Amino acid sequence: MEPISVYGYDPRMLEHPPQPSTKLLPPSPQAPATSEPVSPPISPPPSRLLALPPELRAQILQHLLPRSVPALSPSGPLIWLRGTTAILATCRLLHAQGLPLLYSDNVFALEVVWDCCTFAYRYFSHAAPRALIAPRTMAFPDDLAPRTVALMRRFQVCVHHVDSYLGMMKYGYGGAGLAEGLAEQVRWLGRLLGRLERVRELRVVWRDDGGRKGVAEGVLGPLRGLGNVERWVVVGEWTGGGGEE
Questions:
Q1: Average of per-residue pLDDT across 60-77
Q2: From 23, 124, 157, 196, which residue has the greatest number of CB atoms within 10 Å?
Q3: Once rounded to an integer, what is the mean pLDDT over residues 238-245?
Q4: In this structure, what are the phi and psi dihedrals at residue 220, rounded to the nearest 5 degrees?
């Protein structure tokens, strides 16, 4: 018979329970993991802009892109309204549709002087909405991409014939040399415009500081002979008077 304590309980109840073994046990077998189907990547929702008909999309692009507005006077400077061209970098479709809208529908103002041809643009200031920023000029067509020049269809060309005093100060020429140098620049511009597919509008502003009549016909002749021009307008401006043809 096993002894029982006088206190009425088994002495084995005071013994410490056996400690578990510290040996590494083999891992218990686990149920194989079930292969769950992998969901495909979530594609972005289709663009509502790209789903629109091309006509409506063109109206939206025309509202977002910079655009030129007519001058208040026939010989006045063109004004550009601010816009953004960032939307043309979003996808190829918008780039292909927006680029012709930007370059074919707007009027580009060119200024031809004795020694160069420049593209000039001006726009309203953010600080003062009614104040115009000083004109920005770029060499035409050197500072523009050839593919954008090929898309241009509307031009306002200001041909500036200075007087002999200013010609000698700026260019070192006076008299007939001024007219001949200016005519060479106009002939070069005429060859460039003649290579375009078509020119929808060509407005020429003739400025003669010396008030000499009869010079314009010889200088502007190469522009008159362009066969791809659909609409031709000449605006003459002389010191103390002006006229329109």
A1: 82
A2: 157
A3: 40
A4: -85, 0
Torsional sign, CA 119, 120, 126, 130? negative
Contacts 24+ apart (CB under 8 A), 226-229: 226/190, 226/193, 226/194, 226/199, 226/202, 227/194, 228/193, 228/194, 228/196, 228/197, 228/198, 228/199, 229/193, 229/198, 229/199, 229/202
Which of the two residues, 240 and 223, has the higher pLDDT score? 223
Share of the chain above pLDDT 70, in %: 73
> Strands, DSSP E only, in the chain?
67-69, 79-81, 107-112, 117-121, 136-139, 154-161, 201-208, 232-238, 241-244
Segment 97-115, tens digit of pLDDT: 999 999 999 999 999 998 8
Q: Is the pLDDT of residue 37 over 80?
A: no
Interatomic CA distance for residues 23 and 98, integer angstroms: 76
Say how far apart CA 165 and CA 174 lie, in whole Å: 7
Give the angle 49-51-53 at the CA atoms, nearest 5°: 95
Question: The tokens of 29 are what?
Answer: 């077998």
As a whole number of Å, the CA-based R_g of the chain is 40
Is pTM beyond 0.70? Reply is yes
